[in-house]
Amino acid sequence: MKLERFREKDKKKIGVIIFTIVCILLIGSVVFYKTFASFEVNKNFNIIEGKVQDMGDLEFAFYEGDRIVKDAPTKESGYTLNTEKSHCIDMTTGEQISNISWDNANWEVNLKNIKTTKTKCYLYFEEIYEDSTLKGAIPDLGNELVAITFDNEGRAVKADLTKPWYDYSKQEWANAVILRTKEEYKEGALIPEENIESYFVWIPRYRYELWNGVT
Predict the structure, then answer these.
(1) Which residues contact 148 (CB under 8 A, 6 or more apart)?
(2) Which residues 6+ apart lie within 8 Å of 24 measured at CB?
(3) Cβ neighbours of residue 106 under 8 Å, at least 6 residues apart?
(4) Global confidence as pTM
(5) Quick one: which of 168, 125, 166 has its CA closest to 148?
(6) Cα(138)–Cα(124) distance, integer angstroms
(7) Tens-digit pLDDT profile for residues 135-185
(8) What's the order of all strands across the beta sheet hosting 156-158?
(9) Closest CA to 187 of 159, 165, 154
(10) Contact at 8 Å (CB) between 88 and 117?
(11) What are the CB-based long-range contacts (under 8 Å, 24+) for 6-9?
Protein backbone atom coordinates (compact mmCIF):
# COMPACT_ATOMS: atom_id res chain seq x y z
CA MET A 1 0.00 0.00 0.00
CA LYS A 2 2.82 2.36 0.88
CA LEU A 3 4.55 1.47 -2.37
CA GLU A 4 1.43 2.37 -4.38
CA ARG A 5 1.24 5.78 -2.67
CA PHE A 6 4.90 6.39 -3.42
CA ARG A 7 4.33 5.56 -7.09
CA GLU A 8 1.32 7.87 -7.24
CA LYS A 9 3.30 10.74 -5.72
CA ASP A 10 6.17 10.01 -8.08
CA LYS A 11 3.84 10.19 -11.08
CA LYS A 12 2.42 13.53 -9.91
CA LYS A 13 5.94 14.87 -9.41
CA ILE A 14 6.98 13.78 -12.91
CA GLY A 15 3.81 15.36 -14.32
CA VAL A 16 4.57 18.67 -12.61
CA ILE A 17 8.13 18.60 -13.94
CA ILE A 18 6.96 17.88 -17.52
CA PHE A 19 4.32 20.62 -17.30
CA THR A 20 6.94 23.11 -16.06
CA ILE A 21 9.34 22.20 -18.88
CA VAL A 22 6.57 22.62 -21.50
CA CYS A 23 5.67 26.05 -20.08
CA ILE A 24 9.30 27.16 -20.15
CA LEU A 25 9.65 26.03 -23.77
CA LEU A 26 6.46 27.86 -24.79
CA ILE A 27 7.51 31.07 -23.06
CA GLY A 28 10.97 30.80 -24.61
CA SER A 29 9.48 30.30 -28.07
CA VAL A 30 7.29 33.42 -27.72
CA VAL A 31 10.24 35.51 -26.52
CA PHE A 32 12.42 34.22 -29.37
CA TYR A 33 9.75 34.98 -31.99
CA LYS A 34 9.16 38.49 -30.69
CA THR A 35 12.90 39.13 -30.65
CA PHE A 36 13.26 37.83 -34.20
CA ALA A 37 10.26 39.86 -35.42
CA SER A 38 11.70 42.99 -33.81
CA PHE A 39 15.03 42.34 -35.54
CA GLU A 40 13.27 42.05 -38.91
CA VAL A 41 11.39 45.31 -38.36
CA ASN A 42 14.57 47.18 -37.44
CA LYS A 43 16.43 45.69 -40.41
CA ASN A 44 13.83 46.79 -42.93
CA PHE A 45 12.62 50.08 -41.44
CA ASN A 46 13.71 53.28 -43.20
CA ILE A 47 15.08 51.35 -46.18
CA ILE A 48 14.21 53.97 -48.79
CA GLU A 49 15.07 57.36 -47.31
CA GLY A 50 12.83 56.78 -44.29
CA LYS A 51 9.66 56.40 -46.34
CA VAL A 52 8.85 52.75 -45.62
CA GLN A 53 6.25 52.44 -42.86
CA ASP A 54 6.76 50.10 -39.89
CA MET A 55 4.49 47.27 -41.04
CA GLY A 56 5.69 44.42 -38.86
CA ASP A 57 7.74 41.48 -40.07
CA LEU A 58 8.36 42.94 -43.55
CA GLU A 59 11.33 41.93 -45.68
CA PHE A 60 12.65 43.45 -48.93
CA ALA A 61 14.67 42.18 -51.85
CA PHE A 62 16.09 44.81 -54.22
CA TYR A 63 16.94 44.35 -57.90
CA GLU A 64 18.62 46.56 -60.48
CA GLY A 65 17.29 45.05 -63.66
CA ASP A 66 17.43 41.30 -62.93
CA ARG A 67 20.49 41.59 -60.67
CA ILE A 68 19.84 41.39 -56.93
CA VAL A 69 21.57 44.12 -54.90
CA LYS A 70 22.04 44.75 -51.19
CA ASP A 71 20.36 48.17 -50.98
CA ALA A 72 17.85 50.19 -52.96
CA PRO A 73 19.46 52.57 -55.50
CA THR A 74 19.51 56.26 -54.61
CA LYS A 75 17.44 58.92 -56.30
CA GLU A 76 20.46 60.22 -58.21
CA SER A 77 21.39 56.77 -59.57
CA GLY A 78 19.33 57.05 -62.76
CA TYR A 79 16.91 54.29 -61.73
CA THR A 80 13.19 54.17 -61.06
CA LEU A 81 10.90 51.46 -59.70
CA ASN A 82 9.19 49.10 -62.16
CA THR A 83 5.78 48.83 -60.48
CA GLU A 84 4.53 46.21 -62.96
CA LYS A 85 7.29 43.79 -62.03
CA SER A 86 7.57 44.63 -58.33
CA HIS A 87 5.32 42.68 -55.95
CA CYS A 88 4.85 41.44 -52.38
CA ILE A 89 4.28 37.84 -51.27
CA ASP A 90 2.55 36.40 -48.21
CA MET A 91 5.30 34.12 -46.91
CA THR A 92 2.82 31.81 -45.16
CA THR A 93 0.67 31.08 -48.24
CA GLY A 94 2.84 32.16 -51.18
CA GLU A 95 0.01 34.41 -52.38
CA GLN A 96 0.71 37.77 -54.03
CA ILE A 97 -0.97 40.28 -51.73
CA SER A 98 0.19 43.81 -52.46
CA ASN A 99 -0.27 46.54 -55.03
CA ILE A 100 2.79 48.76 -55.30
CA SER A 101 2.90 52.39 -56.39
CA TRP A 102 5.95 54.63 -56.66
CA ASP A 103 6.51 58.34 -56.15
CA ASN A 104 9.65 59.05 -58.15
CA ALA A 105 9.82 62.72 -57.09
CA ASN A 106 9.86 61.88 -53.37
CA TRP A 107 11.58 58.50 -53.87
CA GLU A 108 8.81 56.79 -51.94
CA VAL A 109 7.27 53.33 -52.25
CA ASN A 110 3.63 52.78 -51.27
CA LEU A 111 2.44 49.27 -50.36
CA LYS A 112 -1.27 48.39 -50.31
CA ASN A 113 -3.39 45.44 -49.15
CA ILE A 114 -0.79 43.99 -46.77
CA LYS A 115 -2.76 42.11 -44.11
CA THR A 116 -0.17 39.66 -42.82
CA THR A 117 2.94 40.09 -40.69
CA LYS A 118 5.00 37.64 -42.76
CA THR A 119 5.57 39.51 -46.01
CA LYS A 120 8.43 39.78 -48.49
CA CYS A 121 8.50 42.47 -51.18
CA TYR A 122 10.53 42.21 -54.37
CA LEU A 123 11.34 45.70 -55.69
CA TYR A 124 12.70 45.87 -59.24
CA PHE A 125 14.50 49.08 -60.24
CA GLU A 126 15.30 49.83 -63.87
CA GLU A 127 17.30 52.57 -65.57
CA ILE A 128 15.39 55.68 -66.60
CA TYR A 129 15.18 56.16 -70.35
CA GLU A 130 17.45 58.85 -71.83
CA ASP A 131 17.17 60.33 -75.31
CA SER A 132 20.70 59.95 -76.72
CA THR A 133 20.35 63.12 -78.81
CA LEU A 134 19.97 65.23 -75.65
CA LYS A 135 23.35 64.19 -74.22
CA GLY A 136 22.19 63.28 -70.72
CA ALA A 137 19.43 65.83 -70.28
CA ILE A 138 16.37 64.27 -68.62
CA PRO A 139 12.89 65.83 -68.16
CA ASP A 140 12.41 67.14 -64.63
CA LEU A 141 8.91 66.08 -63.54
CA GLY A 142 9.09 67.58 -60.06
CA ASN A 143 6.47 66.62 -57.47
CA GLU A 144 3.24 67.14 -59.43
CA LEU A 145 3.87 66.37 -63.10
CA VAL A 146 2.91 62.94 -64.46
CA ALA A 147 4.70 61.83 -67.63
CA ILE A 148 2.36 60.83 -70.45
CA THR A 149 2.26 59.64 -74.04
CA PHE A 150 -0.71 59.74 -76.40
CA ASP A 151 -2.45 56.73 -77.92
CA ASN A 152 -3.78 56.55 -81.49
CA GLU A 153 -6.94 58.36 -80.42
CA GLY A 154 -5.06 61.23 -78.79
CA ARG A 155 -5.84 60.12 -75.23
CA ALA A 156 -3.32 60.61 -72.43
CA VAL A 157 -1.59 57.44 -71.22
CA LYS A 158 0.72 57.28 -68.22
CA ALA A 159 4.27 56.84 -69.54
CA ASP A 160 6.71 54.15 -68.49
CA LEU A 161 9.87 56.09 -67.57
CA THR A 162 12.07 53.05 -68.28
CA LYS A 163 10.99 52.89 -71.95
CA PRO A 164 11.26 55.41 -74.83
CA TRP A 165 8.37 57.79 -74.11
CA TYR A 166 9.84 60.71 -76.07
CA ASP A 167 12.31 61.15 -78.94
CA TYR A 168 13.31 64.69 -79.86
CA SER A 169 15.07 63.52 -83.02
CA LYS A 170 11.63 62.43 -84.28
CA GLN A 171 9.79 65.43 -82.82
CA GLU A 172 8.14 63.23 -80.21
CA TRP A 173 8.08 65.55 -77.23
CA ALA A 174 8.20 64.73 -73.53
CA ASN A 175 4.66 65.54 -72.38
CA ALA A 176 3.28 65.66 -68.86
CA VAL A 177 0.10 66.61 -67.03
CA ILE A 178 -0.97 67.86 -63.62
CA LEU A 179 -3.90 65.90 -62.21
CA ARG A 180 -6.94 67.37 -60.51
CA THR A 181 -6.88 64.60 -57.90
CA LYS A 182 -4.11 62.45 -56.40
CA GLU A 183 -5.29 59.42 -58.35
CA GLU A 184 -2.62 56.76 -58.91
CA TYR A 185 -2.32 55.25 -62.39
CA LYS A 186 -0.16 52.35 -63.48
CA GLU A 187 2.15 52.66 -66.47
CA GLY A 188 0.13 52.28 -69.68
CA ALA A 189 -3.17 53.23 -68.04
CA LEU A 190 -5.47 55.80 -69.64
CA ILE A 191 -5.79 59.06 -67.72
CA PRO A 192 -9.35 60.45 -68.01
CA GLU A 193 -9.58 63.92 -69.49
CA GLU A 194 -11.76 65.06 -66.59
CA ASN A 195 -8.90 64.38 -64.17
CA ILE A 196 -6.36 66.44 -66.11
CA GLU A 197 -5.94 69.98 -64.90
CA SER A 198 -3.28 71.12 -67.38
CA TYR A 199 -0.83 69.87 -70.03
CA PHE A 200 2.91 70.59 -70.25
CA VAL A 201 5.69 69.89 -72.73
CA TRP A 202 9.36 69.77 -71.75
CA ILE A 203 11.68 72.03 -73.74
CA PRO A 204 15.35 71.19 -73.14
CA ARG A 205 17.92 73.95 -72.89
CA TYR A 206 20.54 74.06 -75.62
CA ARG A 207 23.98 75.60 -75.56
CA TYR A 208 25.06 77.20 -78.84
CA GLU A 209 28.59 77.80 -80.04
CA LEU A 210 29.07 80.82 -82.32
CA TRP A 211 31.93 81.51 -84.69
CA ASN A 212 32.49 84.01 -87.49
CA GLY A 213 34.19 81.67 -89.95
CA VAL A 214 37.29 83.92 -90.25
CA THR A 215 40.60 82.04 -90.37
Answers:
(1) 156, 157, 158, 159, 175, 176, 177, 191
(2) none
(3) 51, 143
(4) 0.59
(5) 166
(6) 21
(7) 777 888 877 899 999 999 999 999 998 899 999 888 899 999 999 998 888
(8) 156-158, 146-150, 175-179, 196-201
(9) 159
(10) no
(11) none
